[in-house]
Amino acid sequence: MSEASSSSSREKQGSIPPGMVMGPDGKPCKICTAFRHWKPPANASKSTAQSQKSSATVMAAIAAETASSKTSPSATDTRPDYCPPDVEQLGRATWTFLHTTAAYYPEKPTPTQRVNMLTLIRALPVLYPCTHCASHLGETMKEHPPDVSGRVGLSRWFCERHNEVNERLGKEKFDCSIQKLDERWKDGPSDGSCD
């Protein structure tokens, strides 16, 4: 998702680091970019980066400092705890919230509960911080309207939307059977390892 949508922006903005996503304002979008992609271009010097004060150079400086302060090869991919979330952390937290909310949604919701759930879902394409993710969800919702008829329908709807994102990102799909969804988001495995 972000790689494809950033390629046309990259052409317009000149050379930006691979994986960096441009926001609708034409500037690098911190919340739309995975932390591991907050790296300075190979030809940028530290003094130039500090003098420009743009969000891209600030993000690059954070990544460079983090990389130099740690010795492990994966250090540049690790976001320090004191940093704002990146697109991956925000995505995981959002999916956790949505799947768990669906798992506890009533089997037979009242009209008010249905309206409230629809309001929550419809707010995401408008309010979600990653504009690329938000606009994609909005388009997807036009093709596949949310199912707020009950817990099972809502859980499957979120799982199917999540699997669409996973597929675009080259990740494995999740089994959307209600048994697997309940095991993951509500009850835990039958072996009691989560009790």
From TrEMBL:
<keyword id="KW-0560">Oxidoreductase</keyword>
<keyword id="KW-1015">Disulfide bond</keyword>
<feature type="region of interest" description="Disordered">
    <location>
        <begin position="1"/>
        <end position="24"/>
    </location>
</feature>
<keyword id="KW-0274">FAD</keyword>
<feature type="domain" description="ERV/ALR sulfhydryl oxidase">
    <location>
        <begin position="83"/>
        <end position="185"/>
    </location>
</feature>
<dbReference type="InterPro" id="IPR036774">
    <property type="entry name" value="ERV/ALR_sulphydryl_oxid_sf"/>
</dbReference>
<dbReference type="Pfam" id="PF04777">
    <property type="entry name" value="Evr1_Alr"/>
</dbReference>
<dbReference type="InterPro" id="IPR039799">
    <property type="entry name" value="ALR/ERV"/>
</dbReference>
<dbReference type="InterPro" id="IPR017905">
    <property type="entry name" value="ERV/ALR_sulphydryl_oxidase"/>
</dbReference>
<keyword id="KW-0285">Flavoprotein</keyword>
<feature type="region of interest" description="Disordered">
    <location>
        <begin position="64"/>
        <end position="84"/>
    </location>
</feature>
<protein>
    <recommendedName>
        <fullName>Sulfhydryl oxidase</fullName>
        <ecNumber>1.8.3.2</ecNumber>
    </recommendedName>
</protein>
